[in-house]
Design brief:
This is Alpha/beta hydrolase. This protein is an alpha/beta fold and about 200 residues long. The protein has one domain: Rossmann fold, CATH 3.40.50.1820. Helices cover about 40% and strands about 20% of the residues. The strands form 3 sheets. A 4-stranded parallel beta sheet has the order 1-2-7-8, with helices on one face. It has a two-stranded parallel sheet with strand order 3-6. Strand 7, helix 5 and strand 8 form a beta-alpha-beta unit. The longest helix is centred in the C-terminal third of the chain and has 22 residues. The chain is globular and about 45 Å long.
Length: about 200
């Protein structure tokens, strides 16, 4: 019970520190410090991220070897990380561009040591559109595919799952809380089992 309370307390601290205007004040390093401290406290675990938390997840796994896998739901609104010299061109959108961030190759290679799965939901445009939301996620999905391909090129185990491509439609940005959440949980359960992570 004490360990559970410590974890809940740490999570509340992370939530409080991350309550910022994400358009101007989002500082991944601050949240990464806190998530890394949490993993130091609880030990090995699987990090589940959502949306702008994606970049924090990548950075936490690079910093802390206790992160044994990452499950990311619609990471976006923050940069994907690539090794220096391998950063893809920014993806133009109707409201600006989605750009990646370069990091040292040795840091990037830490992401190749753990399994990573990235899920994207429905209503994502397949080509440029003036619809802000659809166009943002079109660009984020394209960047995620490049990110996973680069991880795999360096010997990693990363997958991007666009739900409509496997016959699951209707999901919003909050994939895990939609009406088909049992089906989404089953996908995660199957992935954990496939990667021998269901016994931790």
């Amino acid at each position: 019970m004490k360990k559970l309370l410590a974890v809940l307390g740490a999570l509340l601290a992370i939530a409080a520190a991350s309550f910022v205007d994400t358009r101007t004040d989002f500082k991944p390093i601050v949240i990464t410090d806190q998530e890394s401290a949490l993993f130091n406290k609880i030990g090995e675990g699987i990090l589940v991220t959502h949306s702008q938390g994606g970049t924090v997840g990548w950075r936490t796994a690079i910093r802390n070897g206790n992160v044994k896998a990452i499950v990311a739901y619609e990471p976006g609104g923050s940069p994907f990380l690539f090794p220096e010299g391998k950063t893809p061109a920014p993806v133009p959108t109707s409201y600006g561009t989605i750009a990646a961030k370069s990091i040292p190759l040795d840091d990037f290679k830490k992401l190749t040591k753990i399994p990573i799965v990235i899920y994207y939901g429905d209503n994502i445009a397949s080509k440029p559109t003036p619809n802000f939301g659809q166009d943002q996620w079109r660009a984020e999905l394209a960047m995620a595919r490049s990110f996973a391909a680069t991880i795999n090129k360096y010997g990693g185990n990363a997958a991007v799952v666009h739900l409509p491509e496997i016959g699951i439609t209707g999901n919003t940005h909050f994939i895990f809380s939609d009406l088909n959440n049992i089906k989404i949980a089953d996908l995660l359960s199957d992935w954990l089992k496939k990667n021998n992570l269901d016994r931790r």
